[in-house]
Amino acid sequence: MEPSSITPPISDFVQPFQIEGHGVRGRLVRLDGVASEIIAKHAYPEPVAHLLTEMMALAAVLAATLKYEGVFTLQAKGNGAVRVLVADVTSGGAVRGYAQFDKDAVAAIPAASANLMRLTGGGYLAFTVDQGEHAERYQGIVELEGQSLVDCIHHYFQQSEQLQAAFKLAIENHPGGWRAGAIMLQRLPSQGGHHRPEGGGWTPDGSKPHDWQGGEGSSDIDGEEAEDAWRRAVVLMASAQDKELLGPETGINDLLYRLFHEDGVRVFTGHALKAQCRCSRHRVENVLRSLGKEELDDLAVDGALIVTCEFCNSEYRFARSDVKPPVD
Ligand SMILES: [Zn+2]
């Protein structure tokens, strides 16, 4: 990471930072146009749109702490009203997401009790890093539990013991769409090492991190001093108001300064996020070609195959006669 003197945009951005002398690194993520554009493609009920916005913000903040070339995916499988929630973020900053749910079952849940467990009925949350055919694939899994996805992810880090991490998140449904603001703090290992793995990195499957965003990092404080510094950083982060986290009145750097200036906060070069799907006619055609003749015949309606991308709602139409599976 390079120290940055550039003022970041108000939103749809990932801002890395470090609290000087504390052995604490962080990421601040804001979504606004990106979340609004993705949600607007679907007629999701409010609690589902809320969960998906939370999922996208968390995927963006977690992806920003990993060193990868490819796709980072957060996927929840529920046993109740909400069956699937997916958000993925490419190393280039392209974000997408979708939800599958039972409309009547979601409508039957009173707004006041529409938390993670009521909406999903439990299930699991998977973290995946896909770096293409020739690279390792990492996957970690944690049970869905707690009031919210952020609780669930916090629990994942507590039990994995890979990384000490803390989160603060806010979601807002405003007249122009959906906004999210999220901060993730991670504690760097002390110099000379202790129980945390070197580099302070993490991988979704708990394997040794080969490298991570920001390179090698360690804290030059230790023991009780480091413990106090970590606790102080978490308390300062927790003091962020929802309005400040979400913007747009408070700039990203203004918020980081407001929270951490007494200890000294340094910001690094961040990157923009955009709403962008990776589907294409070519990819859909390849998937169809991988199906058997019978399956294709079953899918065909009046001689046509119609495939709708669950992420972006784009519709792809093919004549059944144009899609020929490979001959055995
Ligand atoms: Zn798509």
TrEMBL record:
Pfam families: HSP33 (PF01430). CDD domains: Hsp33. This is Hsp33 family molecular chaperone HslO. Residues 189-224 are annotated as: Disordered. InterPro entries: Heat_shock_Hsp33, Heat_shock_Hsp33_C, Heat_shock_Hsp33_N, Hsp33_helix_hairpin_bin_dom_sf. Coiled coil: none annotated. Signal peptide: none annotated. It comes from Dongia rigui. Keywords: Chaperone, Cytoplasm, Disulfide bond, Redox-active center, Zinc. PANTHER family: 33 KDA CHAPERONIN. It comes from the Bacteria.
